[in-house]
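B., you asked whether I could sanity-check this one before it goes into the benchmark set. Here's the sequence:
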Amino acid sequence: MEIKEDRSVRTDLNAKNERDFDLHLVTFEGPDDLLNPLNWPRRRKWSQIAMMSAMTLLVYKNSSSNKSDVPMLTNIRNLATLMCAPAAPSILKELSSSDRLDETLIVSVWELGEAFGPLLIAPLSEMVGRSVVYQSANIVFLIFSLVSGFSKNMSMLIVFRFFNGIAVASVVLNPSIVGDMFIVEQRGNAMSILSLAPLLGPCLGPIAGGYISQSIGWRWIFWLAAVLAAGIEIAFVLFFRETYKVHLLREKARNLRKHTGDASYQSEHDEDMSVKSFFTSSILRPVRMMILSPMILFLSLYVSVVFAYTYIMFTTMTEVFQSRYGFSTGSAGLTFLGLGNRFFFSPFTS
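And here's what the prediction gave me:
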C-alpha cells in the first residue's frame, strides 16, 4: 500500500514538472528592465506622485467645503470634501430645509461612501490594474461633483455626496502605487508629499468654498470641483501609467500569446480564481479582521467617535460664527485657518 502511494505521489510530481516545463514563464527582463516601475526614471515617478497629490487635495477640499488622504487627483479630492462647510446654511436655505441633521449629513455622508468604496476599489485594482480603476474613480467623482450642483432638494444632494465619497480612490491606491515605484528606503519622501494633501484640504477647502459661495453661489463649489477634476483627469489620461507589476506581467504574457500564437506564455501571477471568489475573499477579509482582532475593533470604534465629534465641529463652526459674531459666508471659511495650521505644523512638532 505504501509503495503504491509513493508511486502515485511521484507520478503527480512528474506530471506537474512536465506542465511547468511546457510553460513559458513571463517575467521582467532582468533587474534593470524598464517595464518594472521600480526602474522608471525619477521624472516619471515624481510626475505620477504630482498627479496623485493634486487629486487628493481636490477631493479633501471638496469634502471640507461641505462639511464644515495621497497623487494630483487626490489633492483635489481633499478640497472637495470640505469646501461646502461654510456654505451649508445657504444650501439649507435654498433647498428649503431647516433640519440641522441635513447640515451634518451633506458633510459627513461623504465619509460613509469613502468607507464602502475601498471594498470595491481594492479588489478591482488587483484584477484590472491600478490605472484603470484610479481613472474610472476620477471620472465618477467628476460626474457626481457636477450633478451635485444641480441638486433640487436635500435628498439629491446627500445621495450625490455619498457617491462622491465612494469614488475616492486615492486613500486605497496611493500607498500601493508608491510601493510599486519605490523601494522601501525611498518611500518616505513620496508618502510625506502625498500626506500634505489631507492636511491642507481642511484649511483651504472651507476658505475657497466660503468665498465662492458668497460671490457666485454655492452650486459653483461643486461645478468648479468638477472642472478641476476634469483638468487633472486629462493629465492622468496623457501621463499616468500602470504601476502594478502583476498586471504588467499579465499584459506582457497576453501580448506574447497574441503575437506568437503560443498559449504556453503565462505570467507567474496568473490565477484560476473566479471573479466571484476573488471579490468574496477581498470583501470578507477586512470584515473578519475587524471582528476577530480586538485591536482593530477597538481602534475602529475610537476613530468612529473621533470622526463623529470632528464632523459635529465642522458643521457647527459656520453657524456659530455667522449667527453669534456676524461673520459673512466668506469670513466664516477663514475660521478653519486655525485647524489647518494645527494639521500642517503638528507633524513637525510631534
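One thing to flag: The CA atoms of residues 86 and 318 lie 5 Å apart. Otherwise nothing jumped out at me.
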